[in-house]
Every structure is written in C-alpha cells, then in structure tokens.
Task: structure prediction
Amino acid sequence: MAGFSPTTKNVAALFVRRQEKLSEEQEGYLERLCASDQALADARRLAQDFAVMVRDLEGERLDGWLQEADRAGRRYTYPSPDWQ
Result:
C-alpha cells in the first residue's frame, strides 16, 4: 500500500477500524494478512468484536468475549516445560 508501513501499530489500527472506513487497498491487505496466519485472523476478529462491543455500549457481552479471547489465545500458546 502506498505510504503505508506495516508496523504493529499500523496493523492494530487497521484491525479496529470500522469495515466501511477501510479502503479497498487496506481491506485487501488485511485479507491477505489474515489468510496467511490464522492467529492474525483470530486477532482481527476479536479486535473487531471488541470495538463493536465498546462502540455499541454492550458491556454485557464482555464475559463471553473474554472467554472467546482466552480460548483463541490457548490455541496459539505452547505449554511450558513444567506443564503437566
């Protein structure tokens, strides 16, 4: 993308931007990025869900969102050597 540096901060900003505010180029970038890594796809989905929850003042959804984020996070963590 012209003038875009894919830093962590820039990608995070795109993850929470409203879908309708993304340019075609940004949307294409995010689609390629998420297609390349399931963890990034999950992070984007969770970030979008969280942003909607905050914008729409749906605090009652927080517990369910936290559980889903925990489940998603567990898919990408490895047990420590002393894990039993």
Residues 8-75 form one domain. The helical segments are 8-16, 24-36, 38-55, 62-75.
